[in-house]
Amino acid sequence: CSKRRFALRHPNRPHLPQSAAMPMFTRFVQAGRLALITFGPCAGKTCTIVDIVNQKNVVVDGPESVTGVKRHMMPIKRLSLTDFRVAVRRGCREKTLKKALAKDETMKKWTESAWAKKLQARETRQNMTDFDRFKLMVARKKRSQAVKKAGRFWAETWTQWTTLDEVADAGVQLLELRDWIRAEFYDGRPMVPLRAIQRCRTLRELAVQVTWTSDRFCKKRERSRVWYRSTVRNLLDHVPSDLTLFQPLTCQGLGDGAFL
After folding, report:
1. Signed CA dihedral, 103, 107, 111, 115: sign only
2. How high is the pLDDT of residue 242?
3. Higher model confidence: residue 249 or residue 218?
4. Bond before 248 cis per omega within 30 degrees
5. Is residue 128 classed as helix, strand or coil in its secondary structure?
6. Where are the alpha helices (DSSP H) in the chain?
7. Residues 142 and 181 in one domain
8. What is the maximum alpha-carbon separation in the chain?
9. Range of the domain at 39
10. Is the pLDDT of residue 22 over 70?
């Protein structure tokens, strides 16, 4: 009879969970992968990999009617792979590729991604004139004045007898106000990814501090008043606190990346 062999686990080797066995990379050089050209005459344009020549070169196609990139061979080191991919075979025709992109709305998804918006914002800042920069400076000064006005309002309203529930309500209001500011200033589009993540993280952490503060701050009223005001000032460095005190500011002729 045949003997079965079982692989015994080493006692000192921990068992990895299923999540740890997931692949580290999800962007592969494959047919249908949408990529961004980073060097050459077509730098800044998107293309789709249609065939693989060798380990260093691939054949890409825009198509030309969609992105302005003709079908040609280029090295992989001049491409930045994205998360988007269309289901096409190697060496597909331009007509087939164009139909697949339209079916999956790949270009629309790319335009709505944070990466594409960051590139658009960078291009907007580079194309600004001196007068556009002046209008941007004026708009930023008005916005900072409105934020300071709202900060003074909260600092004067909150006293040493302010309860934690009132502070928690203000923290929730600030989180809701964050989305309103984005829609008002950036036309419903998010900010630069890194800045958006940093500001959202700061808001979330400060809101948690405001909401889950222990009772020891309430025992010493004088200390709690200082803590309340400092926390509010930190929050107001990122967003204003009152919709009635904050007037929407617009800057005519500037794109979405002007306020970044």
Report:
1. positive
2. 39
3. 218
4. no
5. coil
6. 64-67, 94-104, 106-112, 114-126, 130-157, 164-185, 193-211, 216-219, 221-236
7. yes
8. 89
9. 25-112
10. no
Tokens of 3: 């003997």
Q: Identify residue 211 by its one-letter amino acid code.
A: T
Shared-domain flag, residues 136 and 232: yes
Write out pLDDT tens, residues 176-188: 655 555 555 544 4
The residue ranking higher by pLDDT, 227 or 138, is 138
194 in any annotated domain: yes
Query: What are 157's two structure tokens?
Result: 């309203």
Flag whether 243 is in a domain.
Answer: yes
Predicted confidence at residue 155, as pLDDT, reads 57
Angle between helix 193-211 and 164-185 (nearest 10): 160
Q: Is residue 10 part of a domain?
A: no
Q: How far apart are CA 212 and CA 220, in angstroms?
A: 17
- Residue ending a domain, among 83, 112, 141, is 112
Phi and psi torsions of 226, nearest 5°: -65, -40
pLDDT at 258: 34
Instruction: Give the model confidence (pLDDT) of 85-104 as tens digits.
Output: 999 999 999 999 999 999 99
The beta-strand segments (E) located in 53-101 are: 57-61, 72-75, 79-85
Kindly report the backbone phi and psi dihedral angles of residue 70, in degrees, each rounded to the nearest multiple of 5, phi listed first: -80, 165
pTM of this structure: 0.52
